[in-house]
Amino acid sequence: MSQIAGEPGNQDFVEVRLPAAGAYLSVLRTATAGLAARLDFTLDEIEDLRIAVDEACAILLQQAVPGSVLSCVFRLIDDALQVTVSAPTTDGRAPERDTFAWTVLSALAGKVDSTVAEDQTVSISLYKERGAGPGPS
What we know:
137 residues, alpha+beta, 3 helices, Anti-sigma regulatory factor, HATPase_C_sf
């Protein structure tokens, strides 16, 4: 892990890139658990984050370009973990925020957001503070 150039505060990051296929999501669940444990998250908080990352990836994989790469950036920010998953999509649609899946993400991760880049890459960001418990986005 290394310091992110040009960004203030204590931020380390890890980036994982893998095929945009459900068979590889266990790698991200394991990375999520390991990094959250490094920040002394509770077992319940770790499990919530694992499920949230899995759900965010499932949302993206529904519209990911076949054969593309799913990127996941973990940022360790003091007592918080920000996880951003991104994938090039076929239609560049942001996830609907009034769905059950979005409600699950918000409940498990605390803060949730999504963006769409000009090249139709969709990103979902999850932000969870240690000890903050679940909360709305």
